[in-house]
Design goal:
The protein is built from eight helices and 16 strands. The protein is of the alpha+beta class. β10 and β11 form a beta hairpin. The longest helix has 19 residues. It is globular and about 60 Å long. The mean pLDDT is 92.
Length: 329
């Protein structure tokens, strides 16, 4: 019973402002996008392209598909408030195709939640210890809402037992909209009591769910857990880096037996001195902001970092391509 205006990903990438113009022209009320879309519009779109846009009709904006950083929401709200955007419109959420689609949503009447936690405690002990924003090593994590009707969410340890509040674990989902299995795959990924292991990591505070990353993407160095998104968000802010292309992963150097952290970013910059400046800026920013030392930073041409059709970075494929090229050289 709703009118739908569908914008192909390619059209959005060429002209991000087309999304907001469509909302304005159609007086749209509901519209979703992955996190990078909000980042892109807040930071890179000129005022000239936004002339005449009115976002006052927009009531609910799903924000998801990748880690949601509070600064992204804050910047978007600040920039587009003068275009009629309501402070309560942005709604962080969590979902996956296997749950067709939503798992948790921020209720219409609620503002999104942000938990300030001790970064070191989460890395070293897996516990989201509360921290005051002004305290060193305090980091904000965005809440992704509460489970939707007829859906249960459990944060579990490696043995499948439910964890205590604020303890990081694997996110399990059970409910009416969860799939029965994958087409052509005889072995069901659903447990005997109906739980699906999403492969994502997170913790809960009350009923609010907080996502910290993907289990398979986790970088472990010296017994410390590092989420690649933390590094990527910092690198994305560097000058001359194409936003939304930073990709971090680890690889083992068999000569040394040590796990190294690799970062790949796209840039159009070709001047060698300027490229070296990008590398130095990223390396310094990651150390100063996250306390992480990168072992290798690679600058790639635009279009090198593989993404899904919805714009999500394919981190595993990027790592695979990097290792192939490394061995080839």
């Amino acid at each position: 019973g709703c009118d739908l205006h569908l914008i192909p990903t390619e059209s959005f990438i060429r002209n991000p402002a087309v999304w907001l113009k469509t909302i304005s022209d159609a007086r749209a009320t509901l519209s979703p996008a992955p996190t990078f879309a909000y980042d892109l519009l807040a930071a890179r779109v000129s005022e000239a392209r936004l002339e005449g846009i009115d976002l006052s009709s927009w009531r609910y904006a799903w924000v998801g598909a990748e880690p949601i950083f509070p600064k992204t929401l804050q910047k978007f709200n600040e920039r587009f408030a003068r275009y009629g955007l309501r402070e309560t419109t942005l709604k962080p959420c969590y979902g996956l195709a296997e749950a067709t689609l939503a798992v948790t949503l921020t209720p219409l009447a609620d503002s999104y939640k942000v938990a300030w936690i001790n970064r070191d405690a989460l890395r070293e002990d897996g516990f989201a210890e509360a921290a005051a924003p002004a305290v060193p090593n305090a980091v904000p994590i965005t809440g992704c809402g509460v489970p939707i009707d007829e859906t249960e969410v459990r944060i579990a340890d490696e043995s499948g037992c439910e964890t205590e509040e604020r303890r990081q674990g694997r996110i399990l989902v059970r409910g009416a909209s969860v799939m029965e299995g994958y087409l052509g795959n005889v072995k069901s990924p659903i447990s005997a009591d109906g739980w699906l292991d999403t492969g994502d990591l997170g913790f809960r505070i009350g009923r609010e769910i907080y996502i910290t990353g993907r289990a398979k993407d986790l970088i472990i160095r010296g017994g410390v857990n590092i989420h690649p998104q933390e590094i990527e968000k910092i690198a994305d802010q560097a000058e001359d880096v194409r936003m939304g292309t930073a990709t971090a992963f680890s690889r083992v150097r068999h000569e040394t037996g040590r796990e190294e952290i690799v970062l790949i970013v796209e840039t159009r910059q070709k001047d060698e001195a300027a490229r070296q400046k990008i590398v130095e800026e990223i390396r310094r920013a990651v150390v100063e902001t996250a306390g992480i030392q990168l072992d290798r930073i690679e600058l790639a041409a635009p279009g090198t970092v593989p993404k899904t059709t919805s714009g999500k970075i394919q981190r595993g494929l990027c790592r695979e391509n990097f290792l192939k090229n490394l061995n080839g050289n």
